[in-house]
Amino acid sequence: MTAVFSPVELAALEKFRLRIGDIVDQLDEFDAHDRNLIRWLRARDMSVDKAEKMIRENMKVRKEFLVDELQYRDFPEVMLQQLPFTPCGHDKQGIVVCIIPFGIWNLKALVQNGHDDKEILLYLAQIFERYFRYMKNNHSIENFKTEINLLIDYSQFSLPDYLSKRGC
């Protein structure tokens, strides 16, 4: 992602910051940085209204599901076994590269053994929260990264497993 903003992006960022001033005050210096806030606008084609709605909804969901507390939550060992992921280094720009062997993820077995959708989603959210925390702890505000390279391996993927009543 480029750190250079177009005039349209700068104007939208200024409006966006004014609209979400109450939220920006709650964010740390990384999350409140223009390089992070622009992501909300770009995700909504520079629509300040849509970006504001999206960030407010995100903050509501984070609060409802205690996302900021996920780093302290222990998940069953079976989750790590059934849903493995492997951080494997950095690319030339310093962006983390992670392999997700999705083809061998056994979501169906987890659900059939009593792990509900919410628990699985919180586990996955914890993975991303760990990444965000890692990036904040290992980069300065001047050179922090807002990206991750995910290599998703679909070998052994079976569509029928995901079409079952409770395959996920």
UniProtKB/TrEMBL annotation:
Q: Which SMART domains does UniProt cross-reference here?
A: CRAL_TRIO_N
Which segments constitute the CRAL/TRIO N-terminal domain?
33-58
Q: Which InterPro entries match?
A: CRAL/TRIO_N_dom, SEC14/CRAL-TRIO_domain
Q: Which domain of life is it from?
A: Eukaryota
Query: Which Gene Ontology cellular component annotation is one that this UniProt entry carries?
Result: cytoplasm
Return the protein name. CRAL/TRIO N-terminal domain-containing protein
